[in-house]
Write a structure and sequence with these properties.
- It is a single chain.
- The protein is mainly α and about 325 residues long.
- It has a single domain (about 5-320), classed as Formate dehydrogenase/DMSO reductase fold (Up-down Bundle), CATH 1.20.1630.10.
- About 75% of the residues lie in helices and about 5% in strands.
- Helix 12 runs antiparallel to helix 13.
- The chain starts with 5 loop residues before the first helix and ends with a strand.
Length: about 325
C-alpha cells in the first residue's frame, strides 16, 4: 500500500480555503469599492445591508487558509512575512477599517460620511493588497535557502500594482453582480448600468496579465508552452463565461451575472495554480520543500477535518437564512 501524500492533501485544503475566501469576501469588498459611486445615500444603505449579515463569516475562510498554511507549510512564512510585511499590513488594516465601518456607520449621525469613506478606503486597500500579494507571488522572491534576502519594498513593482488594480476591478464586478442578485428597484438598475463597464475593465486587466506575466516570468511562459495542448481550454472557457455574463446583464437576469462572475474567478484561480505549480516559494522551493513533518501534518489534519464541516455548515445556514432580496427599510425581510 502506497503512503498517502499528506502534503498534497494540505495543498488541496488550503487552495479551497483561499478560493472560498476570495469569492465570499470578494463580493463584500467589491460592494465597499463601489460605495462612493452609488447615486444616493439610500442606495448605500441597501448596499451595506446586503452584506452586513455575512461579511464577518466570510472572513472565516481567510483564517482557515492562513492557519492551514502556517500549520502545513511553516517555512513559507519565513519568506512571505518579511517579504510581504507591508502588503500584509495594508491588507489587515483595510479589513479592520472595513469591519469598524460596518459597526459604526449604522449608529452614526454626524460622522456617517466619515464611516462611508472608511468602508470604501478599507475595502479598496484590502483588495489592492491582495492583488499585489498575488503579483509578488508570481514574480517570485529573492532567497538564500529559506531566508528572504530582498528589501521590504521589493514586492511593490509595476507588475504588482497592475495585479492589485486588477483584483480591485474584479472584486468590484463581484460586488455589482451581487447587488443585481440581492437588491431591487433603483439600486438594482444602477448595478445593471455599471456592470458592463466593470466587465470591460476586468477584460482589459485579463488581457494585460496574460501578456505581461509570460514576458516577465520565463518559467510561466515555459509552463504555458509545455502544456499548450491542455491550457488552450482556459481562454476558451473564459470567453464563454464572459459571453454568459454579458448576456445575463443585457437580458437583466438576476442570478446569472453573479454565477458567471464566480465562474470567471474560478478559471483565473485554477490558471494561476497551474502556472505556478508546484512552487510554494517561487522560483525555487516547492510545496514539498516547505512542508512540515508528516506527523505534524497528520495531527493537524484530524483537527481540520473536524472544523471544515462545521464552517461549511454554518456558512450554508447563514446564506440560507439571509436568502432573498434586501428590504429597502429593514434589511433582509422574512
Amino acid at each position: 500500500m502506497e503512503t498517502i501524500d499528506l502534503t498534497l492533501i494540505w495543498i488541496v485544503i488550503i487552495a479551497i480555503g483561499v478560493f472560498m475566501y476570495v469569492l465570499m469576501d470578494g463580493f463584500d469588498l467589491g460592494v465597499g469599492i463601489l460605495f462612493p459611486f452609488a447615486p444616493r445615500d439610500h442606495d448605500r444603505d441597501v448596499m451595506m445591508n446586503s452584506v452586513a449579515p455575512v461579511w464577518d463569516g466570510n472572513e472565516t475562510w481567510l483564517i482557515l487558509g492562513g492557519a492551514g498554511l502556517l500549520a502545513a507549510f511553516p517555512l513559507v512564512y519565513t519568506v512571505f512575512l518579511p517579504a510581504l510585511y507591508i502588503g500584509v499590513f495594508l491588507l489587515l488594516a483595510g479589513l479592520i477599517f472595513r469591519g469598524v465601518a460596518f459597526e459604526f456607520r449604522f449608529k452614526a449621525n454626524r460622522s456617517r460620511r466619515l464611516w462611508d469613506h472608511a468602508f470604501n478606503i478599507g475595502s479598496t486597500v484590502a483588495a489592492f493588497a491582495q492583488g499585489a500579494v498575488v503579483g509578488a507571488y508570481i514574480q517570485g522572491f529573492e532567497t538564500e535557502g529559506f531566508n528572504y534576502v530582498g528589501g521590504p519594498l521589493d514586492w511593490l513593482t509595476p507588475f504588482t500594482v497592475m495585479t492589485g488594480l486588477g483584483v480591485v476591478a474584479g472584486y468590484a464586478l463581484l460586488g455589482s453582480t451581487w447587488l443585481i442578485l440581492k437588491s431591487s428597484g433603483d439600486t438594482q438598475k444602477w448595478a445593471y448600468r455599471i456592470t458592463p463597464w466593470l466587465i470591460a475593465a476586468v477584460v482589459g486587466f485579463f488581457v494585460l496579465v496574460s501578456i505581461w506575466t509570460p514576458l516577465a516570468e520565463s518559467r510561466v511562459l515555459n509552463r504555458w508552452l509545455e502544456n499548450a495542448e491542455i491550457l488552450w481550454i482556459f481562454p476558451v472557457l473564459t470567453v464563454i463565461c464572459l459571453w454568459w455574463l454579458w448576456q445575463g446583464v443585457r437580458s437583466e437576469r438576476e442570478g446569472v451575472p453573479f454565477v458567471a462572475t464566480m465562474a470567471l474567478f474560478g478559471l483565473f484561480y485554477v490558471g494561476l495554480l497551474i502556472s505556478m505549480w508546484p512552487y510554494a516559494v517561487p522560483p525555487e522551493h516547492t510545496f514539498w520543500d516547505a512542508a512540515s513533518a508528516p506527523e505534524a501534518q497528520l495531527f493537524l489534519l484530524l483537527g481540520f477535518l473536524f472544523v471544515i464541516p462545521i464552517v461549511l455548515g454554518y456558512t450554508a445556514w447563514t446564506y440560507w437564512v439571509f436568502r432573498g432580496k434586501v428590504d429597502d427599510e429593514t434589511g433582509y425581510g422574512h
